[in-house]
Write a structure and sequence with these properties.
713 residues, mainly alpha, Growth Hormone, Chain: A, Rossmann fold, 5-stranded parallel β-sheet, two-stranded antiparallel sheet, 71% helix, elongated, binds adenosine-5'-diphosphate, binds thymidine-5'-diphosphate, cell membrane, Thymidylate_kin_CS
Length: 713
């Protein structure tokens, strides 16, 4: 479960708290009703065959309304006042639950009593089909969006965890109570059989919820009163609902995923008995598999949000379906009970997480006026899919038995449950992937990196669109590697070609950046204190964010060539490798700051730190980073080289001890490939111009400043 504090926070919201109490009560009623109505019907007859028929017909009658009424139930929830809809439904259920034991009191003929029980159950179920979407659609209106997930955790845990157990206990308690008060079976008066008492009790729970909703949760009413007059006819609303589900990618993806999960679940349930046999695990194995499946469900619902952290809920949903279905494949292949138990646990975890994220997405992202129909659609579909897959798969498995498989070197006994589970698993995985594609809200962001990042609290965000025309070139390297010199070279060459060139740098290309630059680079004697590593990383990131947004992107957008002296790699090398902050964190920070803007080309000027520092030293006072140890600069150098080798197509690595003009040639040659074909240029000619310009600009005959070891090309 989410933190206790979060639970308390949702329960502090009064209308939700009351609705939760109502839900707990009516769900207790539902479970009691399910148990009691069927045992009640069975108790009316003696022989076991007739008992079976009675039991079965009550169950069937509970599923039928889903087929008949499911499609229109949502129209009620969207069209009429949801509070009144809920109240009327509860009153109907109150009356019809009471009518079952009442009928037994009045009528003597047990066939009639059973028939009435079936009719009453049918009506009760029909009502539930209308009540549930109204309730589901109302919940998101009672809560802030951020609390919806926790609220759903609480609701699901109540409906599927607490109340079924409680219902069982209540039934046992009633049984004992009846015996204590009225004595054993033969001497009891009519109408107080335990199942009858349960039905009376059940009837009262619905009266209680009707009263609470009517008087206590007025907030459920009172939405968009103005829109009501403009409502189209019911039939129109119904077709609109279908159209909405089939045309909205999010809802289509959700529906597909949920149905896939339920189909997989249905096959697992339908084949479970035979599956346990195929593991030679018997009844105890069967029970164990079921128990772990439910345990997994609980874990998925309770711990899911904590585990996936900040992951996009849409992605989480798709991932959960794939996890559940993939684990069905584990079940299909498991030859040992331990493996099967692990598989069942994972099926449960995946299904529980899918259930939670699916409900939350549906509640949070479907607009209020469509929500009832969307929930009704899912409610109907899941019941139908579940019923079909459970019955079909148990029939198929029952008929299929097991086959003897001879592979020549080894022989196997393959139960027909295995291929069936495998098919269900594959089908589910495909459904999950398709669902994910339909509704992915982070297209283009690598999936697994995002999942891992999110689990660690640092989700990746989709890149902001990059302007198509401009070219972004970055120079990287250690101190004194010659970046500024090469930037000037390249800029002049491209300007000579008539290109719009923007020369910039990090840190400090903007007025804000200037101030950040002095905060981060001025020596401690000036600033009065040493910048701590994380603060340093954040300051560079802040400079970068501002720089990209106010200088780089606008220039690229108008088609300019942007040449920057340093960019993201400097942070990875200096703050990551140099300061030894975790590189993935620094990388995430930069990605966030830049909106994912990557350079088209990074020119890495690689140089021995000692040589570079000597060159830089000639420029005067060393800044904070220049005065770091040689080991620091060694780490920085190798970090740059690692980055380049990880993505060679984007990098040009040059030996910076070469003369400046030959480096410039190399750079130009590479940059040429980035230009549109019609702008290809004659290198020799431009280089001559460039050499002249640079000499004129700097006054340096650069090529004469060759350090020893440098060679002319
Ligand atoms: N290829 C080169 N060979 C020798 N000296 C160079 C070369 N490129 C630049 N220099 C000199 O090295 C010093 C630092 O160059 P600069 O371009 O400012 O490096 P950075 O911007 O990487 O710190 C300058 O005095 C510059 O003239
Ligand atoms: C952009 C950036 C620079 N730096 C450091 C590297 C440099 O030592 C310093 C300033 O860079 P720069 O202005 O390029 O200095 P120089 O001309 O001496 O190479 O900032 C980082 O540590 N992280 C970063 O993200």
């Amino acid at each position: 479960m989410s933190g206790f504090g979060e639970l308390k926070a949702v329960l502090r919201i009064r209308p939700f708290r009351r609705l939760w109490a109502v839900l707990g009560l009516s769900s207790l009623g539902d479970w009691l009703g399910l148990l009691a109505a069927s045992t009640f019907a069975a108790a009316q007859v003696d022989n076991s065959a007739a008992q079976g028929v009675a039991f079965g017909s009550v169950i069937a009658v509970r599923l039928l309304p889903a087929l008949v009424l499911g499609p229109v139930a949502g129209v009620f929830a969207d069209r009429f006042d949801r509070r009144l809809t809920m109240v009327v439904c509860d009153l109907i259920r109150f009356l019809f639950f009471a009518s079952m034991p009442a009928a037994a009191l009045i009528v003597d003929d047990s066939t009639l009593v059973i028939a009435w029980a079936a009719v009453a159950t049918f009506i009760i179920e029909t009502t539930a089909m209308i009540w549930t979407p109204a309730k589901e659609a109302a919940v998101p209106n009672l809560l802030p969006r951020a609390r919806l997930e926790t609220a759903n955790q609480l609701t699901l845990a109540t409906t599927y965890g607490i109340t079924p157990v409680l219902a069982g206990l209540v039934l046992i308690g009633l049984e004992k109570l009846v015996v204590v008060i009225f004595g054993g079976g033969d001497v009891r008066p009519q109408g107080v059989e335990p199942s009858e008492v349960a039905l009376w009790f059940n009837s009262l729970t619905f009266l209680a919820t009707a009263i609470t909703v009517f008087f206590g949760i007025k907030e459920i009413s009172g939405r968009r009163t103005a829109a009501v007059e403009r409502k189209p006819g019911m039939l129109k609303e119904f077709t609109q609902g279908w159209a909405f589900v089939s045309r909205t990618p999010l809802v289509r993806g959700l529906v597909l995923g949920i149905f896939g999960a339920f189909a997989g679940g249905g096959v697992v349930v339908g084949t479970a008995k035979f599956y346990a046999v195929s593991l030679s695990a018997g009844d105890a194995g069967f029970a164990l598999l079921f128990a772990t499946l439910f345990l997994g469900l609980g874990v998925g619902i309770a711990a899911g949000p904590k585990i996936v952290g900040a992951l996009s809920r849409r992605r989480w949903f798709g991932l959960s379906i794939v996890l559940a279905a993939g684990s069905v494949l584990i079940l299909a292949l498991a030859t040992h009970l331990v493996v099967a138990v692990a598989g069942a646990l994972l099926v449960g975890v995946g299904a529980g997480m899918a259930f939670l994220s699916g409900t939350t997405l549906l509640g949070g992202e479907v607009a209020d006026d469509m929500r009832g129909r969307a929930f009704a659609f899912v409610q109907m579909g899941t019941r139908v899919v579940l019923m079909l897959t459970i019955s079909l798969s148990s029939v198929i498995v029952g008929a299929g038995g097991s086959r003897h498989l001879n592979l020549g070197f080894k022989e196997f006994e393959v139960s027909s449950t295995r291929p069936l589970l495998a098919i269900a698993g594959i089908f589910g995985v495909i459904a999950g992937i398709v669902a994910l594609r339909q509704m992915d809200d982070k297209k283009g962001v690598p999936f697994f990196a995002d999942v891992l990042g999110s689990i660690r609290g640092r989700p990746l965000s989709p890149d902001e669109p990059k302007a198509a025309q401009g070219i972004f070139i970055v120079f990287e390297g250690g101190e004194g590697a010659g970046k500024s010199t090469q930037v000037r070279h390249l800029a002049e060459a491209l300007r000579g070609l008539g290109r719009d060139v923007v020369v910039t740098r990090e840190p400090g290309a903007t007025p804000l950046g200037e101030r950040i630059r002095s905060l981060v680079l001025d020596p401690p004697e000036v600033t009065g204190e040493v910048v701590t590593p994380r603060a340093e990383a954040l300051l560079y990131a802040a400079d970068r964010a501002h720089h990209v947004a106010s200088v780089v992107r606008p220039a690229l957008a108008r088609g300019a060539v942007v040449i920057s002296d340093r960019y993201v790699d400097s942070s990875l090398a200096y703050q990551g490798a140099g300061r030894t902050l975790p590189v993935d964190e620094v990388s995430w920070l930069s990605k966030w700051a830049t909106g994912g803007l990557k350079p088209d080309l990074v020119v890495l000027l690689d140089l021995e730190p000692a040589v570079g520092l000597a060159r830089a030293g000639r420029r005067g006072d060393a800044d904070r980073l220049e005065s770091e140890s040689l080991a620091f600069h060694e780490r920085v150098r190798y970090a740059f080289l690692d980055l380049a080798s990880a993505d060679p197509s984007r990098y040009l690595v040059l030996d910076a001890s070469l003369p400046a003009d030959s480096l410039a040639t190399g750079v130009l040659q590479r940059v040429r490939h980035l230009m549109p074909a019609d702008e290809e240029f004659d290198i020799a000619e431009i280089l001559e111009d460039v050499a002249e310009t640079v000499t004129a600009l700097t006054g340096d005959e650069l090529t004469d400043e060759l350090p020893s070891g440098g060679t002319r090309v």
